[in-house]
Amino acid sequence: MRIEEDIKLDFKDVLIRPKRSTLSSRREVDIFRQFTFKWSGLVYDGVPVIAANMDGVGTMAMARAFSAHGNGLSVALHKHYPLEALLDFYGKDESSSGAWYSIGVSDADREKLEAFVEKGGKIDKLCIDVANGYSEPFVGFVRKIRDRFPEVTIMAGNVVTGEMTEELVLSGADVVKVGIGPGSVCTTRKMTGVGYPQLSAIIECADAAHGLGGLVCSDGGCTVPGDLAKAFGAGADFVMLGGMLAGHDQGESDIVEREGKKYLRFYGMSSSTAMEKHAGGVAEYRASEGKTVEIPYRGDVSLALQDILGGVRSACTYVGARRLKELSKRTTFVRVTQQINNVFSGHET
Ligand code: 5GP
Q: What is the pTM of this model?
């Protein structure tokens, strides 16, 4: 057994220090980013915020809404769409150009992807998503998919440390997804005791990935727009959102009405709700480490997006970053919580 004594930080442990700036309005801030992916060579030009591949969030309706608003965000589709729906979407719907096709590592997922390609389906962005990105078979899987689809941009995860980020980048991931346990409907930390404070995970993984020409996507734990600003400030290239984009019309969820108020269910993709809904298909995905919550219905997603993107823009003006790209260079975090480190507070006798 070993104990790491370094301080590890979460979003709540820091604030961003304001800096002198020449910007007078948040309208002057450009929150689009352009990336050329290391392996696929494809260019990304958009707002680097991704709707999580979860029921109620990573939907085709969400992709259509993003595309209609022209806001530059993308959607990671949840992996439970049937083959025909995927073929239809990617074949006919222009909004599919911003979508990430998601798979886990199961044979069923792989077979569906092969069938999709065989039937003429075309994708340029793939998200390979498992709860624990530390397993050898997962790394092997990423390698196989990279060999099979050399021209597709691959995002893979999740991990939280530099050495595993490097391993995934070197195995073919263009983007490494970072986050174990911070999700709003995730119970991994409670069920297993495993996790890593998200801000430190981003800082360490971004450093590792950037050194090799890779990118990172901070996945989970954002509850307010300021958390996205902190994630970008810490070095995240992309930020993935679940809970913050849940509860909207675009979630394709059933809405229930009680005492004049509307609600809907939001759940982790390894919760029993998800398992029941996608019976048979999800057993190995995020093995039973998710919960189900009831959240108020929040109408069209565009209102939430205005808030989220407005917050990020405003953070940029506070530190004088004219472009989102400059935010991490301009960020100084101020620690606002104390961690008790080896301090003995008792009386000596
Ligand atoms: P949020 O933005 O809601 O805080 O976090 C979203 C992320 O939580 C997802 O992108 C995914 O990585 C993670 N997640 C989704 N469902 C589950 C689950 O059932 N269990 C765990 N451990 N994580 C989940």
A: 0.95
